[in-house]
Design a protein that fits this description.
Shape: elongated
Low-confidence stretches: none
Strand order of the largest sheet: 2-1-3
Number of helices: 1
Strand content: 25-35%
Order of helices and strands: EEEHEEEE
Radius of gyration: 19 Å
Helix content: 10-25%
């Protein structure tokens, strides 16, 4: 492991994650053990990922499909300066979507 990035949560807890190399050209100064302090909170780092998940859920819940359940899975990487971003899985971005429908029970009417 190259090093760790420490994020603080809103309640002061520390979340340490494996460091991701940033391509900005600048390097953050780490402690002697290779740990870097993140520039934002853990929750702040995840804001963009949460917004992406909410947007994706809206796409699959609204419209004509109307599934009973929606699962969206994507890898997330955390970086000290940029926060969280959706990780590249293979050659393209990694995103798995599962839509589920429950069988209609006899006599049940569908709500429109």
């Amino acid at each position: 492991m190259d090093g760790l990035v420490e994020f603080r949560t809103g309640d002061g807890a520390v979340v340490a994650v494996e460091a991701v190399e940033e391509r900005s050209g600048s390097r953050l100064v780490s402690r002697g053990d290779g740990t870097v302090q993140a520039t934002r909170t853990f929750e702040g780092a995840l804001d963009g990922v949460r917004a992406a998940a909410e947007s994706a859920l809206r796409v699959f819940r609204d419209g004509s499909l109307r599934p009973d359940g929606v699962e969206i899975e994507f890898g997330v990487k955390l970086a000290a300066e940029t926060g969280a971003f959706i990780a590249k899985g293979t050659a393209e971005g990694h995103l798995v979507v599962r839509l589920t429908w429950s069988p209609q029970t006899p006599g049940a009417s569908s709500a429109s």
